[in-house]
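Service request form, structural biology core

Requester: graduate student, group of Dr. S.
Request type: structure prediction, single chain
Budget code: on file
Notes: please return the result as structure tokens.

Sequence provided:
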Amino acid sequence: VDMGAKLLCFFLASALVAYYVYIPIPEDFEEPWKVMLIAAAFRAATHLAEVADQLGLIHHVEALMLITTVEYIAPTSDENVTVMDTEFNNVGVRLYLPRKPSDGLRRAVVYFHGGGWCIGQAGMKPYDRLTRWTSNRLNAVVVSVNYRLAPKYRFPVQFEDVYLVMKFFLQRSVLSQYGVDPDRVCVAGDSAGGNLAAAVAQQLLEDSEVETKLKAQALLYPVLQSLDLNLPSYQENENKPVLSKSYMVKLWSEYFTSDSSLREAMASNRHVPVESSHLFPFVNWSNLLPEELKKGHVYTSPTYGSSELAQKYPGFLDPRAAPLLVSDARLRRLPLTYILTCEHDVLRDDGVMYARRLRAAGVPVTHDHAKDAFHGVMLFVLGPIELAVGHRLVNRYIKWLNENL
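Core staff response, request fulfilled:
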């Protein structure tokens, strides 16, 4: 009996491992086994976090934050870059100051990490690596921001934190203290950080107190709207590696509230009230996506939701949370822009639509579309699982900064 029980356990464990590891991987991924392992690890982590949450042990976001704690590294200087943690305007930042001599004033990048406004930090290995490389390769000052996170802090706290840092840094006296050229400052971020970077760039244009203009913005697979969560990219990539549609919906709703009624409304795409219908043209993918991304999807008019949700949680209709919701007139004055989108990403169409709208408004845009990549791919450039495509995209991003900043 003992042997039979052991065999049964072995088969069950094998089935569970196979269930996690095996997911259909698109043919154009060059390292499918690595992608499978990454996807399995993320699914296991999010499932465990969900179970812990349902058992009342710990909030699912706090459970995932434990992972970022494991990934944390203290500020460590090396022969190229001095690294330190400090505060700008009472918000934590990690500063990267190049040690190489500079002919004149340096360039600067202010970076916001991703993690769905809920998880992540500047000191996580993948972010520390990316910002350190950026500083070293561009001989640039890099400011990586530790904004406060949901569920403890809701919108607009995350936006206000990064905006305070940006405004502080753009003061002439601060720029000169760090030897930064006021004409060569870029804001950048990935995923939710790309969302914050886009919102900050827009808000700076409206702020009469800020004299320094941004030279550029770099948005890496950014999340840019919460109006239509049924775009072709949401439908096609519903269960693709790392970021599923259901998890993105969860992160969006968590940004505003723990009230599950918002999450349920967002999941069925019935959260926008009829009085906000004037916003839909800003995200109408039938006009804003190229034919090859429509792939036979048919645009249907939105199903309107209750006004009550929008009154309680107006954040999801606020351009500071959804930068695609601003008028063309407001887009016109934005700086030079780099947008990276990944084919196999629920957020793909957000970035594609923003690139299209910015170009139409006359903003110079470099839109890099990675056909063989998924959400978050630039985090996998060193460590237990490295992806060649991650390296390639990091290099493309840094090369663009080098040529345009």
